[in-house]
Amino acid sequence: MSARAGIVVTGTEVLTGRVQDRNGPWLADRLLELGVELAHVTICGDRPGDIEAQLRFLAGEGVDLIVTSGGLGPTADDMTVATVAKFCGRDLVVDAALEATIADILKTMMSRSQSWAGADFEAVMAANRKQAMVPVGAEILPPVGTAPGVVVPGSDGQPTVVVLPGPPRELQPMWDKAIATAAVQEALAGRTEFTQATIRMFGLPESALAETLRDGEASIRDFERLEITTCLRRGELEIVTRYEPDAAPVYSDLVTLLSDRHGDQLFSVDGATVDDQVAALLAGRTIATAESCTAGMVAARLTDRAGSSSYVAGGVVSYSNQAKMDLLGVDADLLAAHGAVSEPVAEAMVAGALARFGADTAVAITGIAGPGGGSAEKPVGTVCFSVRLAEGPTVTRTLRLPGDRSDVRERSTTVAMHLLRSILLTAGDAA
Amino acid sequence: MSARAGIVVTGTEVLTGRVQDRNGPWLADRLLELGVELAHVTICGDRPGDIEAQLRFLAGEGVDLIVTSGGLGPTADDMTVATVAKFCGRDLVVDAALEATIADILKTMMSRSQSWAGADFEAVMAANRKQAMVPVGAEILPPVGTAPGVVVPGSDGQPTVVVLPGPPRELQPMWDKAIATAAVQEALAGRTEFTQATIRMFGLPESALAETLRDGEASIRDFERLEITTCLRRGELEIVTRYEPDAAPVYSDLVTLLSDRHGDQLFSVDGATVDDQVAALLAGRTIATAESCTAGMVAARLTDRAGSSSYVAGGVVSYSNQAKMDLLGVDADLLAAHGAVSEPVAEAMVAGALARFGADTAVAITGIAGPGGGSAEKPVGTVCFSVRLAEGPTVTRTLRLPGDRSDVRERSTTVAMHLLRSILLTAGDAA
Hints:
Chains A, B: It comes from Mycobacterium yunnanensis. The structure is a homodimer. Chain A is an alpha/beta fold. The first copy, chain A, is built from 16 helices and 17 strands. The first copy, chain A, has a six-stranded mixed sheet with strand order 2-1-3-8-7-6, sandwiched between helices. In chain A, strands 14-13-15-16-17 form a five-stranded mixed sheet, sandwiched between helices. In chain A, strands 10-11-9-12 form a four-stranded antiparallel sheet, covered by helices on one side. Chain A starts with a strand and ends with a helix. β2 (37-44) of chain A pairs antiparallel with β2 (37-44) of chain B.
């Protein structure tokens, strides 16, 4: 049996979708790494009654560990610690050492930042004093910002509760300390380790995969020992399988089946994303981008990772026709003859990017993201791509992508990454 | 009393954070527009037991309406309809008309798409047949993709359940039809309308706001009639207040208090984002970007909205020093003397962007996003910004931004938007 956990994300701004929750996914990853089975993530606003209801729900579902995020700030709507204390039947007491730590942090912050000019230390400290209140018997996780976390040990069959702050850059550094506490170690004792593996495909419909998986169920022995989840996202299919280590041969049979049936679409069996693969293939090379409808999204994605400056030269966002001519050297006659969204223009853009940046690899994208600008011949979603290597090959494609403006832009970015991957693989073959 | 609702998001890929949930936030917005109070969002994997536990939890919390998303696909891990039927005590039956509709959709899809080449219609239809199974007495929401939704009326004090598919572009078009059903209308009958208003600030610490709100509690009559939530995100503070319409004078007092205390930081009282404001201020103008560490993120953000092609000329992602020289005309001596991350280089970049794109407005960003590249003098997080209008003013700033690579890049993008807003406002004043 695997230890089970639940995550409670608090904050009206997260509940109402004004802020995207980054903690639930991050905590989910950490729990999976530990071999803990995540059963539920629940989100509620800054209301003690709703927070308490979620804690009761998770305890009732028999989880061994609850992790909460958010609600530790100085404002009156931050009430997670008090609510958890009540739920665990423990009183709240001021921790004098913690109060002194918070006072020191505030003094340093106020002395450094202009935006505090004129603020009264005592008034600010009054607002932050409640952050020094902790449940009796809880272990304190020292603050990264001004908010400390706490670990409240479970008792009488109740789960252990780890209370963490909302800002990811405060929450994340506290995690290792939280996990190291005796209370958490005890809650997770005796867990089964699981292996998790990811296969990625591009360009296969989900129903075709479903058919193959049904065949696998019939043909692969012990298939039911694999817990398979599939997810289609902007043309990419992700197949994540979780299994106990001794079911590795069953998983291996699944990989063989998928490779045999869908070898052309399968691009990763080791969890690597197309971004990882393109980054590796770009080692020793220099890339430049020329983007119209995606307007910098491919450049931003390529530079997302540390160290990308060793192979990214730069790019041009050529949103206007004038920019295509002035910055990339696209011929005015070509634009007039074929229109900005056309394969000849995409090829001229990619050639311009190669030349202007002195790069050996380039990608160009020009398309109609909508909602306006479409025509009968070139409807919204029409996007032309060209990828080119200095040593020769150019690949140019026109696709019609589904969805709204944001979908078309994001999906175009993903398609560009896959075209780059393909052309760079041919370079590898030739070398 | 407001009607209360809960949202159940299913899907192991969402639970484990591999896919960001876009439906919870979107549904939350729709419910708030209807004046429905959203109490809980719960996320679980594709396990019937966990889905059922969440439905029971929400029903136990007394919600009037439950909306589920996901788990309607053809694969075996999609089991939401069957689970909801069981929870509502209703049998599942095949709907013949719906089965015919799904068959038609599949035939069209298979005939149009290359990726289906060689697939057997009967096998695919077998996979999709379970999508035609609906709970007895449920209302069917016609499919947008291949998955229909259903509305299962509440009975005996149980909530009405709206079952929607996971892909946002299938879920969203079904919403209006779901809301129009008699079962949903009945569940939401007698709800109180609420007004919701948003104030935005930039550059104010959360504790300073907390202090002001405590003063408001003491000085503003009926302050408790305002339900205020605050959220700090990359330097922006968002203050959302929900109140019954007759408490409008109380809210007006709050706005006055915040304007008096924090007028310099307050940039929006009408819900408009800095993106909305910059877009409005750019009407009749032309903007170009020159980005180093943000590498296209500002250009991508400016072009996020439909119609931006009327004022965005384009931009240069000048990741390498060579690109700064070749594409933006930054002087090699300037780079050598001050380094790429310096105010003189930012000013040369902004001048280059103005000139090369023939624009009248430009923004340049050069900084150290990390994790490498920092020094004692210029640590990671050091970012230089320059904004300039063709008619004269240039504003240049150097900031030290907190957080990791991704934080620094995103926060730099937000700072750039605020600097653009400020300089464009001075242009408006001069005109």
